[in-house]
Amino acid sequence: MARKVVTEYFDDIDGTPLHDHTTTTFALDGRHWQIDLSAANAEKLRAALAPFIAAGRPAKDSTGSRRARSRRGVERPGIREWAAGQGFTVSSRGRLSVEIVDAYDAAHRGRS
After folding, report:
1. How far is Cα 98 from Cα 60, in angstroms, rounded to an integer?
2. C-alpha to C-alpha distance for 98 and 101, rounded to whole angstroms
3. Among 12, 8, 4, 32, which residue's Cα sits nearest to residue 20?
4. pTM of the predicted model, to two decimals?
């Protein structure tokens, strides 16, 4: 006997079926939220938050920063040499400090 399992997604606000499913993620007061929305309702959410985002500033993520740094790999080639050239005290081995990695990222932001 053949069996086919079908998962259907519905807009969490108005209950309409979602054919191209996309989960929208946002954060407030240190908590992250996910919601399934149609394109129209996702745009309404973004429009409602736009004035607050425009007036705000990016926050440092204190809960996930270590996890994010370990994933992106702080032992990138050339970072020790760059840091030494910038006047940072850098050991020849071991994990790089968060301060050095943040400074390196800030100096190289937007370069690819």
Report:
1. 12
2. 5
3. 8
4. 0.50
pLDDT at position 67, please? Answer: 46
Domain annotation for the chain: domains and CATH numbers: 9-55 (3.30.60.230), 75-108 (4.10.320)
> In 3-state terms, what secondary structure has residue 59?
coil
Q: Which two tokens stand for residue 54?
A: 């425009």
d(CA 88, CA 90): 6
Helices and strands counted in the chain (H then E): 4, 4
Q: Which residues contact 34 (CB under 8 A, 6 or more apart)?
A: 23, 24, 25
State the pLDDT at residue 70. 47
Query: What is the rounded distance in angstroms from the CA atom of residue 21 to the CA atom of residue 12?
Result: 12
